[in-house]
Amino acid sequence: MRVDGRKNDELRQVSITRNFTKYAPGSVLVKFGDTKVLCTAFPEEKVPQFLRGTQEGWITAEYSMLPSSTQTRKPRDISRLKLDSRSAEIQRLIGRSLRSVTDLKMLGERTVWIDCDVLQADAGTRVASITGAYIALCDAVNDLIKKGILKENPVTDSVAAVSVGIVDGEMLTDLCYEEDSRAQVDMNVVMTGSGDIIELQLTGEKQPLKRKELDALLEMSKNAITEIIKVQLEAFRD
Ligand code: UDP
Fold first, then answer.
1. For residue 213, how many other CB atoms are within 10 A of its CB?
2. Cβ < 6 A, ligand 1 pocket
3. Does a structural domain hold residue 22?
């Protein structure tokens, strides 16, 4: 029995609220149970140096946890004058995930800034961030279309993510912190709406993983991502 009474393959309640704050054209509050992340998307009419003159755009992300998002206060990175290496790893993952479903030529020479701020962390903050950031990106792109800045939608597929793992020998979907902190195997899976894999982050924390266990975890994550994509589609109808 899981701490919160879920079945092994059951997600926490996933919810997506669009237009959560008013200034960014994409602003989404995403919840995976007690994990809550604000994801915003803000276009900017310039690109990094390496893309200047190429007529190609860029999507980049920043990720941060608020001091009160964790059980003991997490000091802001600025207090140590450097970005936490975990945040750096996560924000690069978010950027890569969104770029992989966007035609950057079609986006044109502009950047979409994605900001993911964790309001409350109960594990799975990176997968919640990717899931919410995709909706924020779509809202920002649709705003550019509405304003006549873009003619076509450069987003080619949907993207969502989930964590799966092995805890006490049991394969579990969408680990909460209590499970994540004692997992033998922990995997973050990013997939497109078409079911293709964008990225797998797999760690055999306390034991190596057998190939057939990986296949089973992938199957579990695919089913979970299908459910998450349904929630994303419902959010677009609101
Ligand atoms: N966590 C924390 N403080 C930190 C880093 C992580 O309390 O500085 C907790 C938090 O609940 C987070 C969980 O550990 O969601 C799992 O962290 P991990 O690095 O695996 O990333 P996540 O699962 O959030 O993507």
1. 16
2. 70, 74, 86, 121-126, 163, 177, 180
3. yes
pLDDT on residue 207: 82
- Name which residue sits closest to atom 3 of ligand 1, judged by CA: 70
Note the pLDDT of residue 1.
83
Q: At what angle do helices 211-237 and 125-146 cross, to 10 degrees?
A: 40
Distance, CA 103 to ligand 1 centroid (Å)?
31
Q: How high does pLDDT run on average in the chain?
A: 96
Q: Specify if 9 maps to a domain.
A: no
- The reply to whether 4 falls in a domain is no
The SS3 call for residue 115 is strand
Which helix or strand (DSSP H or E) is residue 86 part of?
A: helix 85-99
Angstrom distances, CA of residue 105 to CA of 47, 61, 151, 156: 12, 19, 12, 12
Residue 195 covered by a domain: yes
The total of structural domains in the chain comes to 1
